[in-house]
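USER:
Try writing one entry.

ASSISTANT:
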Amino acid sequence: MNRHSISSLNIALLYVGTLMGAGFASGREIWQFFSVFGKYSYPAVLMVTMLFILFGLMTVKISIALDTTEIGKVIMPFAHKGMEKLLGSITAVILFLVYIVMAAAGGALFQEQFGFHRIIGGSLLMVLVLATVLGGFERISKYFRLIIPILLLIVFFVCFNIIFRDLPVSHLPVKLKISPMAPSWYTAAVIYISYNMLAGIPILANSTQRARTHPGAFLGAAAGGILLGFSAFIMNRAMLSDPGISSGSLLPILSLAGKLNPVLLWTYAALLLFAVYASASSNFYGFTTMLKDDTSKKYKIIGTAFIGFLLSLLGFGNIIAFILPLEGYCGILFLLLMTVNYIRIATGHRSVNMELTQYSEENNKHE
């Protein structure tokens, strides 16, 4: 793939595919972070949509201004190699944790829907992710261009059917288990955007540097944010139509699809597998960009993928409720730093030329 080959549509699809993993597409994340707050879930979704757009556009602007794909440089508002390396390392750990979440989701889906042990689903996902990530950014971009439009169409079709068809309500007891780490709708919204953007930043920065035009990169980031927000809105609305089923299921949209007909149920189950694969691949790719390029990198990628699979056996529900909010609190600091970085660039206090000068001065001091 040459330097200027990605369209704005492809950038939007990469943005969506990175964040619309099984936690999102199954409705589990949307329920945990938004739907549990009932009517207050709607302002939370609106807030998150605006932040998806805002931080997406900021990432594109910073990547263009500093001519970089490095997440440390995108986040850190001052040229400091040590701090940028530290931020990159912390982000790598967080992206690796998201890969663990997706591996756990794959296991949960295989166990709940197909009756196989979750080890089978997790191991299958690991193999697919490795096959994709070892092919580099080009392979991920190619696959997302094919998979994500289908994923979005099925999500919209199923959710609109749940919302607008006169389906019987289960009247099951509603189990509102609000995470102690995200106790209010606005706290949950901030945490949700912060841990998600840590996965979105590396993909958007890489996409920006390969975009056909800079305006196209901005358009792609904005369109991706709108698609993510709209998807969250209709999924939230669909789950609140029968909160008894939604609150009692690990994969609520899948359970609600079962009320429509068996074909849609199995179609949505297949979609979730694609969503798991897409998000796991993009997040794990972001993690691998932090690894040193040497002859052992391939083996490090394979080894860490296997370790992540083993950790995923802790279980999907536990990871969603506790690990993701913890990542979110870490991400808040990073997004604040990135906001300062953006302001410095927008006001002319930082540029790629300044970066080169500062790094040159740093190197001269060391010499």
The chain has 16 helices and no strands. The CA atoms of residues 88 and 240 lie 38 Å apart. The domain at 8-366 is CATH 1.20.1740.10 (Amino acid/polyamine transporter I).
